[in-house]
Specification:
Blueprint lengths: L9 H5 L5 E5 L3 H13 L3 E5 L2 H8 L6 E5 L6 H11 L8 E5 L5 H7 L3 E4 L4 H12 L8 E6 L1 E3 L2 E2 L7 E6 L2 E5 L9 E8 L2 E13 L10 E8 L2 H16 L4
Parallel strand pairs: 1-2, 1-3, 3-4, 4-5
Antiparallel strand pairs: 6-9, 7-8, 7-11, 9-10, 10-13, 11-12, 12-13
Length: 248
């Protein structure tokens, strides 16, 4: 595990806002899949099926990022990129190109695209690329909102009353609780996922009261310090299944 890639700190969470992204794809199915995927990453999405529709939408709201299919009619994505660069409000907006049929990404990167991803887009690659282009402190690993039972220092939390793991990533989690442990303390945790008990040791990186922090709920953010590799892989697979469920 690389600590610099997996920070879970108050500073890393506090300043983040829900980003608005624009998706342009003439294929309704691809458009739906991409929009749903990004929504599960906690982004707000405005989807368009053509350049004309996209430019009309972008005249109303300026996105943090544009993700476009490169196989649009006419000059396609190059035409869209030119319009974005000529508009002072969108001149610096990063654009990701979705490539198909073995297209060479170098052509699009030279034209001004900030990144290229090949269809079908992989959840992890999409997440990291969007994070890198929109966040001052990009996350390397997907995190999801969830509700999983946990035991802290041998004491089960009352999941029925809302005390549970409410946010989960491959390297840490946020536990909703009225009784957070002291910051920097090491605690033993047992996380339950689909009936499987995952024991681990975690460090408390920050804590919040009601209305504080990115989640607006009381609790503590944990960074995993000791966890079996097969358990960490199980968490990663669980997260992947959750973010792709029903949209493959």
């Amino acid at each position: 595990m690389k600590p610099e890639e997996n920070k879970i700190t108050a500073q890393n969470g506090e300043g983040r806002q829900q980003r608005f992204l624009a998706v342009v794809d003439r294929d309704p199915q691809h458009r739906f899949i991409l929009a749903m995927q990004l929504q599960r990453f906690n982004y707000r999405i405005l989807a368009s099926g053509s350049i004309v529709e996209a430019l009309e939408n972008l005249a109303v709201a300026v996105p943090a990022l544009v993700i476009t299919d490169v196989d649009l009619p006419g000059r396609g994505a190059f035409h869209l990129l030119e319009h974005l660069r000529l508009n002072p409000q969108t001149a610096s907006t990063p654009v990701i190109g979705q490539l198909t049929n073995g297209a060479d990404p170098a052509t699009y990167l030279r034209a001004g695209f900030r990144a290229c991803l090949h269809k079908p887009l992989q959840a992890e690659d999409l997440y990291r690329t969007v994070q890198a282009l929109t966040e001052p402190v990009p996350r390397a690993n997907i995190r999801i909102q969830t509700k999983l039972p946990v035991t802290v220092n041998g004491k089960p939390l009352d999941c029925v009353e809302g005390e549970c793991a409410s946010v989960l990533s491959e390297h840490g989690m946020y536990i909703r609780t009225l009784r957070p442990s002291p910051v920097k303390s090491l605690i033993s945790v047992t996380l339950m996922i689909k009936g499987r008990a995952i024991p681990l040791t975690a460090e408390v990186r920050y804590s919040h009261r009601f209305g504080e922090g990115p989640f607006r709920e009381p609790g503590m953010g944990l960074l995993f310090k000791e966890i079996a590799s097969h358990d960490q892989e199980y968490i990663r697979q669980f997260i992947h299944e959750e973010v792709t469920r029903g949209i493959k």
